[in-house]
């Protein structure tokens, strides 16, 4: 691993995505497809049905056959899994731009070394957004209870007074407009900041930097609102009866810490492949601190939501945790505790010491744990409400692997399309000489 | 007990950093450097070992957490059990905020007190200061001299060669 000496400055570096790397990405997709097929077979042939067949029966009864609509359990599982993984990857992808925008607005110098990684992370925003719209248009009945026919119609047998009361917000045209607006904002600003950054590489000067700051400031205001609202729309509205004022922050915290973990993990892989010569252990240390801090932040938001609901014990609120903690024959109980362990206890103890944050191997393990942990956090948000105990892991993990492979292909393509170092960034030197 | 110090006064942070490197390379042991603000990289340049304060902090935190949990479990679970909101006597989620606060409380107070004790920065009437200008706009490098200050002329030359704007000798009493 080449590292710069004190007095050198960073120069442009071009990433070459090797055939080996491309094969790995394809292999991830193929593995995903294989796991998906195994999962579908397991579902069709009823493997493991003996243990939880009864649970599923109960769940279906509890759901009420009256407004059961949409597809079979198998198709439903596939559609909800697509929504789940896409939501996770789309959110993480957007965090690339958010991270960069925050660093611009804060006039942060240290992060210039990982700036291109965060730019490239947002390569998934447009494909992810398109996939999201397609899944919604095709499979919304399987994901969202409130889209069911007649649920807001007083004369229908499906009528649900509580959901009907939310029709001002949760109706199809408004929902679609909102979704498109969020995605358009995210896609536009990730494109805009990327263009400004590439222009800076070509032309130099500080004008691009100042333009980026203006764009970032505007984006952050819009993102603060749109991330919170998108969490209500895309995640919270699957539990249509339920609501929580913490939810926007909770989802954002999950995306945010995963996004930072993704940036840190990429930086480590690039460094170990011999790129990013000026990236030092000090940059990793700072990324590690952010991961440590925001894991605690996630826990704080998670616990604030949990404790208030637990203490007040109001039926319309407590149902959320009833389902996840002991509900559906205890199917989610393990995951509930695992979620706290992998997303709080593990990063908290793992990244506590300075030495841990400066060890690539420990950082790698914690990054992967955080990414997997927050993927399962989204699993826990979505599955109990939509599949009600009828979901498993094979289909879900298979689809996640397919998304991961596709995500990595686009991510590395964008990483390779420009220098890995933003050579004309005014704070580049500060980043090169960063010490912690 | 009194000690003699040679004080090199520097105007600039970068000059100081290079001077520290050169003085140490010349085999002189630097007692300490005083600056108006934290200088990045000075710890490495001076060869100062990492502080072990974080380890102390961890144990202060652990003490605070244990104390908070013990206090609440003993009080609400055994000493004076009360039913509050229909929750169990030992309802752990309700104890978390207090446990968190006391962990932070013990950690920060324990760290501050440990830090002040070890560094000798605790409040007192007569404060030993090498050079008051180090609290304003000057950087002061202090080098301890032996009994009869025989190295002072040589050190003066060395410090001046490395960019010191002035070199003084100062006698400090006690620590």
From TrEMBL, chain B:
* UniProt keyword Oxidoreductase, yes or no: no
- Pfam families for this protein: ActD (PF11821)
Keywords, in A-Z order: Membrane, Transmembrane, Transmembrane helix
Origin organism of this chain?
A: Hymenobacter negativus
Transmembrane spans: 55-74, 94-116
> What name does this protein carry?
DUF3341 domain-containing protein
């Amino acid at each position: 691993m080449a590292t710069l000496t004190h007095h050198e400055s960073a120069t442009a570096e071009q990433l070459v995505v090797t055939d080996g790397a491309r094969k790995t990405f394809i292999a991830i997709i193929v593995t995903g497809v294989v796991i998906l097929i195994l999962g579908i077979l397991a579902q069709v042939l009823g493997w493991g049905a003996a243990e939880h067949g009864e649970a599923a029966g109960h769940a279906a009864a509890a759901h009420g056959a009256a407004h059961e609509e949409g597809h079979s359990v198998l198709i439903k599982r596939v559609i909800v899994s697509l929504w789940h993984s896409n939501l996770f990857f789309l959110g993480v992808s957007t965090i690339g731009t958010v991270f960069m925008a925050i660093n611009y607005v804060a006039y942060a110098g240290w992060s210039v070394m990982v700036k291109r990684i965060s730019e490239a992370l947002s390569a998934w925003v447009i494909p992810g957004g398109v996939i999201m719209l397609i899944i919604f248009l095709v499979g919304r009945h399987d994901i969202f209870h409130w889209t069911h026919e007649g649920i807001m119609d007083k004369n229908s047998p499906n009528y649900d007074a509580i959901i009907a009361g939310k029709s001002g917000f949760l109706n199809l045209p408004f929902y679609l407009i909102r979704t498109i607006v969020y995605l358009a904002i995210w896609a536009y600003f990730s494109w805009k900041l990327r263009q400004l950054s590439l222009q800076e590489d070509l032309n130099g000067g500080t004008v691009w930097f100042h333009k980026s700051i203006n764009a970032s400031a505007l984006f952050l205001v819009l993102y603060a609102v749109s991330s919170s609202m998108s969490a209500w729309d895309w995640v919270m509205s699957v539990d249509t009866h339920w609501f929580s004022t913490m939810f926007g922050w909770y989802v954002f915290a999950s995306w945010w810490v995963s996004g930072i973990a993704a940036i840190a993990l990429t930086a480590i892989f690039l460094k170990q492949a011999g790129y990013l010569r000026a990236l030092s252990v000090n940059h990793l240390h700072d990324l590690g601190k952010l991961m440590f801090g925001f894991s605690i932040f996630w826990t704080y938001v998670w616990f604030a939501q949990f404790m208030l609901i637990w203490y007040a014990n109001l039926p319309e609120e407590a149902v959320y945790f009833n389902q996840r903690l002991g509900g559906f024959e205890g199917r989610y109980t393990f995951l509930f505790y695992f979620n706290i362990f992998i997303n709080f206890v593990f990063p908290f103890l793992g990244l506590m010491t300075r030495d841990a944050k400066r060890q690539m191997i420990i950082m790698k393990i914690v990054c992967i744990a955080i990414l997997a942990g927050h993927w399962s956090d989204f699993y826990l948000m979505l599955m109990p409400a939509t599949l009600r105990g009828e979901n498993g892991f094979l289909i879900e993990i298979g689809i996640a692997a397919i998304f991961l492979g596709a995500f990595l292909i686009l991510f590395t393509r964008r990483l390779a399309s420009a220098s890995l170092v933003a050579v004309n960034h005014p704070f580049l030197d500060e980043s090169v000489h960063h010490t912690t | 007990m009194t000690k003699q110090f040679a004080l090199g006064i520097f105007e600039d942070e970068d000059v100081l950093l290079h001077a520290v490197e050169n003085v140490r390379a010349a085999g002189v042991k630097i007692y300490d450097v005083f600056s108006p603000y934290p200088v990045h990289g000075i710890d490495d340049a001076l060869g100062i070992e990492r502080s072990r304060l974080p380890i102390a902090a961890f144990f202060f935190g652990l003490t605070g957490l244990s104390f908070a949990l013990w206090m609440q479990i003993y009080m609400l679970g055994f000493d004076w059990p009360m039913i509050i909101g229909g929750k169990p006597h030992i309802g752990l989620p309700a104890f978390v905020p207090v446990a968190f606060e006391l962990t932070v409380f013990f950690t920060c107070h324990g760290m501050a007190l440990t830090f002040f004790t070890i560094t000798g920065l605790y409040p007192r009437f007569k404060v030993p200061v090498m050079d008051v200008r180090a609290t304003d706009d000057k950087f002061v490098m202090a080098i301890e001299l032996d009994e009869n200050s025989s190295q002072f002329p040589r050190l003066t030359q060395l410090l001046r060669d490395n960019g010191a704007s002035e070199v003084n000798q100062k006698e400090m009493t006690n620590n």
